[in-house]
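Example (one chain per record):
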Amino acid sequence: MTPTRFPELSVSGSPTQMGQNIGEHFKNQIREVTELVLDRVNKGTQNRVLWKKAEKGARDSFLSGRLFPGHNG
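Predicted structure:
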């Protein structure tokens, strides 16, 4: 079997349920990569971004998504 670059996961349900299932399944990997990205951002700037501020930015971006037509969440 050839290793794949990205893991595969089969989910079903509403878009919201599928997103929640994917997020729950990959929770640890998501946490690791977001910490890595935040660390890299902070190495390249004088104005450090704290985890709390990064979380707020993420939450705000999800709320903004509700403004798009066809959003069912």
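Caption: The radius of gyration is 16 Å.
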